[in-house]
GL12665
Amino acid sequence: MVAQIFLLVICFICLKQYAKGEFQQSLAITDILPEDIKRYDKMRPPKKEGQPTIVYFHVTVMGLDSIDENSMTYVADVFFAQTWKDHRLRLPENMTQEYRLLEVDWLKNMWRPDSFFKNAKSVTFQTMTIPNHYMWLYKDKTILYMVKLTLKLSCIMNFAIYPHDTQECKLQMESLSHTTDDLIFQWDPTTPLVVDENIELPQVALIRNETADCTQVYSTGNFTCLEVVFTLKRRLVYYVYQHLYTHLHDRDHVPWMPFMSVCTVFVFMALMEYCLINIVLSDTPIPKPIAYPPKPVAGEGAAKKDPESGAAGGGGGGNPPAGSKPTMLPLADEKMEKIEKIFDEMTKNRRIVTTTRRVVRPPLDADGPWIPRQESRIILTPGIAAHPPPPPPPPVEPELPKPKLTPAQERLKRAIYIDRTSRVLFPALFASLNGIYWCVFYEYL
Ligand SMILES: *[C@@H]1O[C@H](CO)[C@@H](O)[C@H](O)[C@H]1NC(C)=O
Ligand SMILES: *[C@@H]1O[C@H](CO)[C@@H](O)[C@H](O)[C@H]1NC(C)=O
Ligand SMILES: *[C@@H]1O[C@H](CO)[C@@H](O)[C@H](O)[C@H]1NC(C)=O
């Protein structure tokens, strides 16, 4: 008996609740729009007291993927929410809940923010199993519109330090037709952006996510714009792995660009060192066919030694043809003296010259270019030190500090010096550059 009364009481309470409107009737759009429909202009933002309408944005990023360096795009799966207050609306009667779900189709008859994705190449709106969007009406006439989208977004990537690059990819939302006088987008003050912590990208790591304002000044006015900035850092380990197992040439970018460039520069420098040494060793301006000075002393000496010097070392390459064809050029006195000195030295050095060297006779007409080559070959043989010099102007400079060193020795000394310096300098430089490189890019490992 008591139990029956108790049940009746419960039923009575239930009925009372029902009568109070706990179970609401369906709404029609006319229930929320002003009674005089003419007064509601759906093209005009609900500006209260002349102030621009503020739309709050919230973005939940559920996924990031398909980062494509070739087309400079990436794909983002987002929940995109906009909240705005339209004071012109009416609230449905007896609204007891915090919010009511409205039919999304009603948006066609209401004002709604005209935001668009500025850097989107394509937007996919999912319709399975039902269209993925909804609208809420809050008690304070605030409308929340939420939509789930898959966006293919363009992202300007800079590959200057590829593969050590960090890219900033954005998701920009701008107002299409309203200037900042009418409409302003703002990030939701409480939770503007939520990025799924489980986002894992193979080739890059998401290191930062930010919200920003990108309001743009156009000739037609200022247009409000908001953006999400993802900072993506390339995973070097993945990169190396990928490139070890796939072909290197299916990409536009040169892999390991900076590193390879440094290596190439070093190879090039080694080559340049070799060239430099060669140049130093044969550092002779090509002498003009020497016309023997007509002076009695020098001329005698030269004439006497000429055939021998040619036969012995081939050092004075220009001598034999010149000797056999003594064309006299008008020489200045200074030059004459220089030439005399050359011959003096040649006479001195001739004694030490070994006779094992191959004598290459110069072609009669072209004596110039032949000289340096012959010289460098001779100098590189063990008998270097004693080799008689060709007649270059530099060695005969009067202020030569060490008269004991022949020009050839001088050149050899220089070459050896260059070589020794390079032997220390190159590896040291390479090691330090390597050190710096891997210090700078250590974090990418
Ligand atoms: C709303 O509530 C009032 C009283 O609070 C009631 O008179 C009215 O009938 C209710 N309207 C609807 C549509 O439930
Ligand atoms: C996004 O940024 C917030 C705040 O900076 C941070 O707490 C959160 O971990 C970030 N999410 C991801 C996935 O990086
Ligand atoms: C647009 O913005 C610029 C600066 O951001 C400001 O100087 C200018 O007055 C603005 N114009 C309008 C029409 O609001």
In short: Residues 281-420 form one domain. The CA atoms of residues 11 and 17 lie 10 Å apart. The first strand starts at residue 53 and ends at 68. Residues 251-255, 298-327, 351-357, 371-385 have pLDDT under 50 and may be disordered.
